[in-house]
Design brief:
This protein is of the alpha+beta class. It is 22% helix and 33% strand.
């Protein structure tokens, strides 16, 4: 599948038309969700071989879709059904940011890609052997460097400023457009949503214990240390 047309109009906004994709349109309907390079979009019109989607300004800011051109190949995926075997991890199609390919190294028949996110905040959701979605493909993280500054124990230079690596096996390389990209190009990134929910739940719990505010976590720690000291002092007095 590839982009047939990318139209930008001041009145109607941006639309993408994808061609040569009859295999995924057999039971399509207007309003269905479909993932283009990991971005969940809505079908606004279609034929047996083509379909069109609208792209919002927010989507253009978050993703690499606005930098595609006519004939650019894309990854396509229909929404999962309840009857489907659940492999990989749950992907929403809500892109968090883009990441630049820093290096591509061959390892036997596989390729190792090192990627650096535009927004470094997403690194807290990236962990070795965890999941990450690149251009819509669910992949396993093989290595991570959280050294955002690049001068505090991580690798030096541009590649030391926060990155992770994934490995594309030969089969995956045949199926995804990411395998054909070069150093310096960008991919869409969606981090594992479970990490986001856990983070928000823990933050809410801590703020609930200590009241609203940025210092909630520190306040809880102070209370824990204080109780520990009181307990030790009480035992010393009892002796």
């Amino acid at each position: 599948p590839a982009i047939n047309a990318l139209d930008q109009d001041a009145t109607t906004g941006t639309t993408l038309t994808i061609s040569d994709c009859s295999s995924i349109l057999t039971d399509a309907h207007l309003g269905d969700s479909i993932s283009i390079n990991g971005t969940c979009l809505t079908i606004t019109s279609f034929t047996p071989t083509h379909f069109t989607v609208g792209v919002s300004p927010e989507t253009l800011r978050r993703t690499n879709l606005g930098r595609l051109s006519a004939s650019s190949p894309v990854n396509l995926e229909r929404a999962v059904s309840a009857a489907t075997r659940m492999g990989g991890h749950f992907v929403q199609g809500h892109v968090d940011t883009v990441a630049k390919i820093l290096s591509i190294v061959e390892d036997g028949e596989a390729k190792v890609l090192r990627l650096q996110p535009r927004e470094k905040e997403v690194l807290r959701y990236i962990m070795e052997k965890g999941y990450v979605t690149l251009d819509g493909a669910s992949l396993t993280v093989t290595r991570v460097s959280d050294d955002v500054i690049g001068d505090g124990g991580g690798e030096q230079g541009e590649e030391g400023k926060g990155w992770w690596e994934v490995m594309l096996i030969a089969y995956t390389q045949e199926k995804v457009v990411t395998a054909g990209k070069k150093v310096g190009e960008e991919v869409n990134v969606e981090v594992d949503m479970v990490g986001k929910y856990v983070e928000k739940s823990v933050r809410g719990y801590l703020e609930g214990l200590n009241g609203e505010g940025e210092d909630a976590g520190g306040g809880i720690l102070e209370k824990m240390v204080g109780r520990k000291l009181e307990d030790r002092l009480s035992r010393q007095k009892a002796q």
